[in-house]
Amino acid sequence: MLVVFGVGTAITLLRAGTITVETALRAVLSGLLGLVVFQFTVGNVWGYAVEYHNAGGEWTDLPFLAPFVTAGVAGVGVAARTGSAGLGAWTAFWAFVVVAAVVALGVWFVAGYRGAGA
């Protein structure tokens, strides 16, 4: 987390050119925002992986990998089509969220039926 904060702060300072109190404050805020985005993204991906595994799935299962593959294809496709890496990342994030939600609901449904039958 310290590295993420440091990189976000450093990039903002490098873009600013001259270091003033205002640019330093903006750099720190930018580093904190980068840290929040990192924590949110990594935390959600880790939570998805753990919950899938706890439901009896393996991390090499096709349903587990589907959100990652979909996100990668959608992100690269949008970035290549529009020329915007930011839009590609945004698309990849939401593609992952939607497909992970569908997989989670399916796993929840199947695991519920397995539990009811036991």
From TrEMBL:
Domain of life: Archaea
Membrane spanning residue stretches: 28-50, 62-80, 92-113
Keyword tags: Membrane, Transmembrane, Transmembrane helix
Protein name: Uncharacterized protein
Organism field: Haloplanus rubicundus
